[in-house]
Amino acid sequence: MTPDPGIALIVFFILVFVGVLLWKIIKSPFLLQNIKQSKKALVEDILKQLYHVEYSGRTASLNAMAGALKLSDRKIVRLVEDMSSHDLLKLDQDILQLTSSGRDYALKIIRVHRLWEKYLSERTGFDKSEWHDRAEQKEHTLTEEQAEQLYHDLGNPRFDPHGDPIPTEAGEIIETHWKSLSSLSENTVARIVHLEDEPEVIYQQIVAEKLHIGSQVKIIASDNHEVKFFSEGEEYRFSPIVASNISVKELTAQEKYEEDVVRLSSLDPGEKAIILGISSECRGASRRRLLDLGFIAGSSIETEFASPSKEPKAYSIRNTIIALRGDQADLILIKKVNE
């Protein structure tokens, strides 16, 4: 007996409907969990952003916060209303302000973010241009207990790899007294102590120029259009906006400006030099490897030859030929020897 096509079609649609219904029932807890996690991340982003604004002595409006986090007006209003009801912030004539509870919560998120950046810089091979984004993701999932364990595993660090102080578990934070590079006058000598990693577009520009925390700088000229300075044998020209994201500390009378310090990458074939040390930017396994290879302060070094592209270069040190990439050689500080 031939089946009725109409009945077969009805059965097919019933099976599809039941299948979709079962899928929604199975999926709904996971979907709800994802929604909750997404909302939690947005709340924490608002708290963290608002803390940074208040820390810099500015204020944040509702519209400005929506624009900074790329949220619709409707969504930011709903989130702010919910956060206000939980005593995390208050809205005063369109100006957002953290409550005491909100500030404590923000510092916990900042603590996790900076600890994770420290972990990435010390224990992994990720490039520093990736640290911020990876820490942005991790800060919303790491528990306080995991953060505390990470803090102890890293040796109780006080600063992250960008030079920012890491808040304590109790919410205390070291007060810094730095100056902006753009505020220094001509012939001032200083040391870089902090590289602001937000906004990312400016941070990436600084990273591309291979400036490092701990490097000495000497201002050549500075005005409203350009900041020109020397650092480790290189000349740099930044706009005041970019230079304002570099924090420095002027050298004391006891500290000496190292006029002749340059990077190993600047040593041409046939030239000789004495190693002065490894930049503080080089950390963890990378630093240990260079030390194990003999790149120790006081050692003599000579560039033997370079590839046609000038990278890598082969260096003679302690009767051994070692090839280094340009980014590795940038982290080794030398003083050239005149013969």
Structure annotation, total helices = 10
Low-confidence stretches: 28-33
Please report the total strand number as a whole number. 15
Shape: globular
What is the helix fraction of residues, given as a range? 40-55%
Q: In angstroms, what is the radius of gyration? A: 27 Å
How many domain units? 4
CATH architecture of the largest domain: Roll
Distance between the termini: 105 Å
Strand content: 15-25%
How would you characterize the overall build of this protein?
There is one protein chain. This protein is an alpha+beta fold. The protein folds into four domains: 68 residues, Arc Repressor Mutant, subunit A (Orthogonal Bundle); 43 residues, Diphtheria Toxin Repressor, domain 2; 72 residues, Ferrous iron transport protein A (FeoA) (SH3 type barrels), CATH 2.30.30; 76 residues, Ferrous iron transport protein A (FeoA) (SH3 type barrels). The protein is 42% helix and 22% strand. The chain is built from ten helices and 15 strands. Strands 4-9-5-6-7-8 form a six-stranded antiparallel β-sheet. A six-stranded antiparallel β-sheet has the order 10-15-11-12-13-14. A hairpin with a 2-residue loop joins strand 13 and strand 14. The protein starts with a helix and ends with a strand. About 2% of the residues have low confidence.
Write the topology of this structure.
Layout: H1 5-55, E1 60-61, H2 62-69, H3 73-85, E2 89-92, E3 95-98, H4 100-123, H5 128-138, H6 144-153, E4 179-180, E5 189-195, H7 200-208, E6 216-222, E7 227-231, E8 234-238, H8 240-243, E9 246-250, E10 262-263, E11 272-278, H9 284-292, E12 300-306, E13 313-317, E14 320-324, H10 326-329, E15 332-337
Helix pairs in contact: 1-4, 4-5, 4-6
